[in-house]
Amino acid sequence: MGATGLSLHIGLNTVDPDRYDGWDGRLLACENDARDMAALASDAGYSGTVLLTDEATVEGVTAALRAAAARLRDGDAFLLTYSGHGGQVPDETADEPDALDETLVLYDRQYLDDELNRELARFADGVRIFVLLDCCHSGSGIEVRDLLTPEALRDQFGTADRNEIETVSRLMPVDRQGTIYQRDKDFFRELQRELRADGRPADALLVSACQDNQLASDGQVNGLFTGTLLKVWDKGGFRGDHRAFHRAILRRMPGSQSPNLYLSGRPAESFLAQRPFTV
């Protein structure tokens, strides 16, 4: 009996303004990204779940991750794709007072990177986990608007106006991050303490849309990262391994947005040497 492949595709074109201090986080291409990645995964032999906008709540995402973890065994494959806003909250439980937790901006609240790690760590040893994040989610994202020069912003977005950029990039506006964190600080502090006690990093391969001091671009049809990935994949025509796939995407991206490859825990070298999306 062959390996099983399950996938989860999350795309949010808006968030619930009642939960985000009146901000609806409107984007154009994230639902398209999720659908297109689900089609790619299906063609590759995965059985997929798609969560769009108001379906992509913390409860919905967590339930889908746990259902996949309960089914998959050593040698099986799990693919997670996310398109939406990224944000950060201060991690005041860590040793470094300026530490930040990166977040996925789900429909009802921000989902901490440590929460995602906890769910991925539930998968059985030997499950091949591949995560693709088309969002701004860098550790230095709180300062990202000060790190980027007007020239760099014009090159990427055609404008250096910070307010306009927040409507065409996938960074949760910095002022909203601060306001919402202050409102929900006690909740996040308690959650961070609980997660800190949970332990080990998940074994996974992650490719993200940009570097720490960059912003991920939205688009009319796909996000820039997802659209480039789909072109490189070429409907299955790509034949290299995961590192070659990352390099090929990187070569096609502008210098203002350079996707990052990151290894969490200790994913097997045999997995890294496989063609992407192999079940």
TrEMBL record:
GO terms for cellular component: cytoplasm. Residues 19-262 form the Peptidase C14 caspase domain. One of its GO terms (biological process) is proteolysis. Signal peptide: none annotated. One of its GO terms (molecular function) is cysteine-type endopeptidase activity. It comes from the Bacteria. This is Peptidase C14. It comes from Streptomyces thermolilacinus SPC6.
